[in-house]
């Protein structure tokens, strides 16, 4: 029994050393440099040719919410240790799944976001990337009837991709 307690203690100690050596680790999988305390997320304007009036605000707020809920970083207006800026560069619908009568069975809403990420303490993780996601919807539905739901879902996918690339290092 005594050896079991010692083994558990040794394993716990070794785990703590490994986690400390890898920087700050959270149970969401985020690996953030231990000295990083703040994050700046600038407003993402919608510069796509087709504009959804709520998309910029929805997207920016969801990105801020993700980092506030899944990291210990404090949101700041400028000069953050981690820094995001960008723009929505594509918002479009197009027909997909064309049937024999040249009618589309499905339509696709696509959103692309260009993101510039800077990490003050780990410059190798900096990037400028365009992230693209889409959702299909039945062609019998009017876009305006499903648009809010599609924007919410696509925004979640995009934010997952951005979060993972910036702090989970995939």
What does this structure look like?
The strands form two sheets. Strands 4-3-5-6-7 form a five-stranded mixed sheet, covered by helices on one side. Residues 9-28 have low confidence and may be disordered. The chain has three helices and seven strands, in the order H-E-E-E-H-E-E-E-E-H. Helix 2 runs parallel beside helix 3 (143-168). Strand 3, helix 2 and strand 4 form a beta-alpha-beta unit. The two termini are 41 Å apart. The longest helix has 26 residues, at 143-168. The chain is an alpha/beta fold and 170 residues long. The chain has helices at residues 2-21, 55-70, 143-168; strands at residues 24-25, 31-32, 38-41, 74-75, 82-98, 104-119, 127-138. The protein has one domain: Double Stranded RNA Binding Domain (2-Layer Sandwich), CATH 3.30.160.150.
Strand content: 25-35%
Classify the secondary structure makeup into a structural class.
Answer: alpha/beta
| SSE order | HEEEHEEEEH
Poorly predicted runs are: 9-28
Topology:
Blueprint: H1 2-21, E1 24-25, E2 31-32, E3 38-41, H2 55-70, E4 74-75, E5 82-98, E6 104-119, E7 127-138, H3 143-168
Parallel strand pairs: 3-4, 3-5
Antiparallel strand pairs: 1-2, 5-6, 6-7
């Amino acid at each position: 029994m005594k050896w079991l307690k010692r083994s558990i203690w040794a394993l716990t100690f070794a785990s703590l050393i490994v986690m400390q050596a890898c920087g700050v680790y959270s149970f969401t999988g985020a690996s953030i440099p231990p000295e990083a305390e703040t994050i700046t997320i600038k407003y993402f304007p919608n510069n796509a040719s087709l504009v959804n009036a709520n998309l910029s605000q929805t997207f920016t707020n969801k990105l801020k919410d993700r980092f506030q809920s899944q990291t210990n970083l404090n949101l700041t207006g400028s000069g953050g240790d981690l820094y995001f800026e960008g723009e929505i560069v594509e918002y479009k619908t197009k027909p997909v799944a064309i049937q024999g009568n040249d009618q589309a069975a499905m339509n696709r809403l696509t959103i692309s976001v260009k993101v510039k990420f800077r990490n003050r303490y780990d410059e190798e993780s900096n990037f400028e990337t365009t992230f693209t996601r889409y959702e299909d919807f039945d062609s019998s539905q009017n876009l305006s009837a499903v648009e809010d739901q599609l924007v919410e879902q696509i925004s979640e996918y995009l934010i997952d991709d951005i979060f993972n690339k910036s702090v989970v290092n995939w």
